[in-house]
Amino acid sequence: MKESLLLNRAYTIMWQEKFVICLNKMHSKLRKLPFYPLGKLLLITFQNGGVSFRRIPVFILFLLRYILFEPFRLTEILLFERKIRKHELQEDPIFILGHWRSGTTHLQELLEADSNHTTISVYQFLFIDHFILTERWLKPPMNAFCRIFKIPYSFQRVTMNLNMPGELESAMCAGLSDHSYTWGHIFPKRYEYWFGRMIGLKRPKDQEGWLDDYDFLIKKISFASGGKRVIVKSPGDTGRANHLLKRYPKAKFVFIERDPISVYHSTMYFWRVIQKEVSFQKVNDEQLQGYCINSYIKLKEAYHYFRKQIPSEQLYELTFKELISEPMETLNRLYDELELGVLPIKQVEQKLILKRDHQKVNYTTSPELARDIEEKWESIQPDPNFGSDETSY
User: 3-state class of 179 per DSSP?
Assistant: First the structure.
């Protein structure tokens, strides 16, 4: 009986893998059709509950983006897609782990200061489908426009600069991948669905689909840089790093942690900016608070499981506080532990000088809220079921 069940399971997995391969091939062919992204956006919007009335202007901007830049997308597919798929990574990526607003972006900027490293920029993630073709001539005037008219980049509380580092996961969403949890930010009423599906990754087709889409974008960033090592920052990776390790067995991982109260307030601010600038739907603060607290718990549970599986020489852990108070010493230790070579001191110091004027925010926390957060977050333990089919997200 047991042998029969194992055999049936093996057949099921085999057919699931074949189904995933067929889906990926079909998707690869469809995306080469003119205005495929426009149709895909309309379909995803329909499947996720549509657009709230007051968010229609944001939705229209998204539609215009995919209409106006469609010729560049098709041209880039024709000229570069085959080359990107054949591109070989010289070294497995460095993945930055940590909850949203834990200091991941700051760490990403400092690691990118190394001339041997590259990472995705804001321009590249916004225009992931054609940036190789357009970045050289379109980014400078767009940056000048942002500078002259002081267009804000509200997520980081600075004036927009398209050279700033971005998130690979957001690029997947901008490229209309089916495998990005960022759709949960665009459709916040469905946030728990997207978080559970694309960070829980319980279905084989989601695991393979996400890894294939991720791998293509990592190769694209590496290809565009001339083969440099890619720094990847997407906070959701904290909950699925075990899958990354299987695809990139020699990858390095850096986990950064920040005090929970600051993370909570900053994440709530992050959500309010999302609601204002990119969401197609509106949810209330109580729901956002639930998203914030529960996602923190799930990510930390998954991370505690992952850190027991990974070789110590491939993982380095640090705190935001030590990175801010002792940046050079902290980065030197990081480079030594992960064997990344020699820390480029001059370049890192220049980056730190540019960030000295970054706006600092002080939050007020009621005793009740502080106690609630500490009770829920301080006692987080490894999830004993993580990695099994029974884990529920």
Answer: coil
- Return d(Cα 117, Cα 121) in angstroms, integer: 13
Residues in the chain, pLDDT under 70: 1-28, 357-360, 378-393
Report if residue 95 sits inside a domain.
yes
159 has which bridge partners? 152
Task: List, in sequence order, every residue forming a beta bridge with 319; answer none if it has no partner.
Answer: 257
* Pairwise CA distance, residues 349 & 16, whole Å: 50
Task: Give the tokens for residue 14.
Answer: 């085999």
* CB contact at 8 A, 66 and 122: no
Domain membership flag for residue 116: yes
For 76, the domain range is 40-377
For the stretch 279-332, pLDDT in tens is 999 999 999 999 999 999 999 999 999 999 899 999 999 999 999 999 999 999
Q: How large is the angle between the packed helices 204-225 and 191-200, nearest 10 degrees?
A: 80
Torsion 282-213-126-98 (CA) sign: positive
Q: Is residue 6 part of a domain?
A: no
Q: How many domains does the chain have?
A: 1
Tokens 């440099």 correspond to 228
Q: Are strands 94-97 and 252-257 parallel, antiparallel or unpaired?
A: parallel
Which residues, in sequence order, are CB contacts of 111 under 8 Å at separation 6+?
94, 96, 117, 119, 231, 254
- State the pLDDT at residue 210: 97
For residue 258, how many other CB atoms are within 10 A of its CB? 19
Residue with tokens 């996400």: 210
- The residue type of 113 is A
Coil, strand or helix at 97: strand
Question: Rounded to 5, what percent of the chain is helix, strand, coil?
Answer: 65, 5, 30
**Owner of token pair 């209309």:** 176
Name every residue whose Cβ is closer than 8 Å to that of residue 263 and which is 6 or more positions away in sequence: 99, 100, 101, 102, 296
Q: Is residue 32 part of a domain?
A: no
**CATH code, 318:** 3.40.50.300
Nearest residue to 342 (alpha-carbon basis) of 351, 350, 352, 332: 332
Q: Which amino acid is at 339?
A: E
In total, the chain counts a number of residues equal to 393
Report the C-alpha gap between 334 and 323 in whole angstroms: 11
In this prediction, residue 156 carries a pLDDT of: 86
